[in-house]
Design a protein that fits this description.
binds adenosine-5'-triphosphate, ATP binding, Rossmann fold, four-stranded antiparallel sheet, six-stranded mixed sheet, 2 domains, ATP-binding, 12 helices, P-loop_NTPase, 10 strands, ABC transporter ATP-binding protein, 44% helix, ABC_AA/LPS_Transport, binds magnesium ion, alpha/beta
Length: 284
Amino acid sequence: MEIQQETSVADSTASSLSETDVGQRPPLLEVRDLTKSFGGLRAVDHCSFQVEQGTITGLIGPNGAGKTTVFNLMTGFIPPDSGRILLGGQDIGHLRPDQIFARGLCRTFQIPREHGTMSVLENLMLVPPGQSGEHWWNALLRPGRVRAEEARHLDKAREVLEYLQLTPVRHEYAANLSGGQKKLLEMGRMLMADPQIVLLDEPAAGVNRTLLQSIVRNIQALSRERGITFLLIEHDMNMVMNLCDPVIVMSEGRKLAEGAPDTVRGDPAVLEAYLGGQYAAAAG
Ligand SMILES: Nc1ncnc2c1ncn2[C@@H]1O[C@H](COP(=O)(O)OP(=O)(O)OP(=O)(O)O)[C@@H](O)[C@H]1O
Ligand SMILES: [Mg+2]
């Protein structure tokens, strides 16, 4: 089984590289002809788009357009019916969620909810996988290495707490945080994993203006200072227009439009998708 998987990764990598122009880096994340049906409903319908490295890309569209389903497919939560998902040119369509996470594709709400009876700091310390201390023989044979790793891990957690301004509540039970602080903690848990690309599904939903501004600033800083790429689903158009470039528009499972925020905002097809027959009637 393992060997077959390895072979298919190698095959798919080779074929995707041969399809890419020589010397050009493949897009960081790409979906090609992705399709997923639930019973008779085609939620994602031959959808193709790319997310370039270093961008904060917006993914918008009316309710039920298939945006969250695309996230579920990209993160390995549900298998596609057909089509491909490529991360850095490598096919990840067959991988498990934890394998995809380990490759640096993270999603805030894919991480289990906060552990309410643990402190904020302990929640962060839970995240990184594959610590030496997890193996009893390492603890027994290489206690120094385990201690050094734990110390690095703790330093990183402290840095993340500072970064997200959660240091004052680090010893608080996670259950006692406000809804907004829990969102920041989720982002912190994601940062502990050193992501390449982060998928955010409606980060502004249910968040007050002040916290929203802080989330926006965090996303911009993480993009600028750490080179993290973002793909962000959002219904708050102000946030999308200020934060994202490019913006991809989905409608009825397909990519309807893509471009700079201003271009997309003025696209009649996009307006029609949002407003349905109303726009068509008004325009006609
Ligand atoms: N697990 C599922 N089983 C059955 N139908 C589903 C499932 N997940 C999604 N759907 C359906 O697929 C379609 C697309 O849903 P999806 O959640 O991807 O839309 P969305 O673009 O994220 O919408 P919203 O903006 O409202 O969150 C909807 O009609 C939804 O009811
Ligand atoms: Mg959704």
